[in-house]
Design brief:
Radius of gyration: 19 Å
Helix content: 25-40%
CATH class of the largest domain: Alpha Beta
CATH architecture of the largest domain: 3-Layer(aba) Sandwich
Largest sheet: 9 strands, mixed
Strand order of the largest sheet: 6-5-4-9-12-14-15-17-16
Number of domains: 2
Order of helices and strands: HEHHEEHHEHEHEEEHEEEHEEEHEEE
CATH topology of the largest domain: Rossmann fold
Number of helices: 10
Shape: elongated
Length: 306
């Protein structure tokens, strides 16, 4: 296969998966790692991708906002694994806020297994699906102006959110980056998400590995705003180290397309019953114990006063 053909195939792979690894591409095309790195250099110079440690990610424009349906089938297995890990953090009787997004949508399908919860959401598609399948589940839909991704934003949404306090917020994001933090292409959605952050005692960001080094036009919050971040094991080693330093706790949900990483991080502990990996960093007393889904009222002051 000549280089141009291989580079075209690499472009197709990164469009399909959102990210690629050098080692996996070398196996796929039966070439050396150095050959793949040269291909990635050429594609980066053409603006078709962005190189990261160990691979490359999509090079999307910061103001582009894919629609909900377009994103729903992307990385579906990873999103399902993240959702399974996330629902384990919800105790019975909790008030749960859920932002718009397809990873949060996957989580919402699993939430009704937790008894006596109340759901607050600004996602129209999520609310419709939950009410259709679980009509007796207590739920508050904020109202607001819909974005292309199906989130309700603007003054109406923010006024509704400000009147509430919730135990835990699950926040979906367009991108995460050590400098830019958590971002979205939509300015109004960034503001509404910041309002959600202000009313939650505990914030859990859910994002698959393709969101790493993706930057949207509008910043939601720095990485430190996340008490917990749940990603999948497709996350590159650079991302694991940066996020374990930046967030309160990083949980890597097992992915059917990945194996245990060969490079170990000193802080990692594993939960043998669930197969999940935990990359922990002390962050005050916000997380009282690893894997404990109970919410400690003293563990986090409400952010609304900030």
């Amino acid at each position: 296969m000549i280089p141009s053909q291989r580079q075209s195939r690499i472009t197709e792979e990164i469009k399909r998966h959102g990210a690629v690894r050098v080692a996996e591409l070398a196996d796929l095309f039966d070439v050396s790692d150095m050959t793949i790195r040269r291909d990635l250099e050429v594609l980066q110079e053409s603006g078709l991708l962005t190189k990261v440690h160990g691979g490359a990610v999509t090079s999307g424009r910061s103001a582009e906002e894919p629609g909900f349906d377009a994103k729903l089938t992307q990385n579906a297995f990873e999103k399902a694994a993240i959702a399974d890990a996330a629902v384990a953090l919800v105790p019975p009787g909790a008030s749960v806020a859920i932002s718009g997004g397809t990873t949060t949508w996957a989580l919402a399908q699993r939430l009704p297994v937790v008894p006596r919860i109340t759901v607050v959401t600004n996602s129209l598609s999520l609310a419709v699906a939950l009410h259709r399948d679980h009509p007796h589940l207590p739920m508050i839909l904020t109202g607001g102006i819909p974005t292309p991704s199906g989130a309700l934003v603007g003054m109406v949404a923010e006024d509704a959110i400000r009147s509430l306090y919730v135990d835990i917020l699950f926040l979906g994001v367009h991108g995460m980056d050590p400098e830019a933090g958590f971002t979205t292409p939509n300015l109004a959605e960034a503001q509404t998400n910041r309002t959600l952050l202000s009313c939650a005692r505990r914030t859990v960001v859910v994002a698959d590995h393709t969101k790493w080094r993706t930057i949207g036009m509008a910043r939601i919050a720095p990485l430190s705003a996340a008490d917990v971040l749940i990603c999948d094991e497709g996350l590159v080693e650079e991302g694991r180290r940066a996020l374990s330093d930046g967030v309160g706790e990083l949980i890597l949900a097992p992915s059917p397309s990945t194996h245990q990483p060969s490079v170990k991080v000193d802080e990692r502990e594993s939960d043998s019953s669930s197969g999940m990996s935990f990359l922990k960093k002390a962050k005050g007393n916000q997380i009282s114990s690893e894997g404990d889904p109970t919410l400690d009222a003293s563990s986090k002051n409400t952010r609304r006063s900030k």
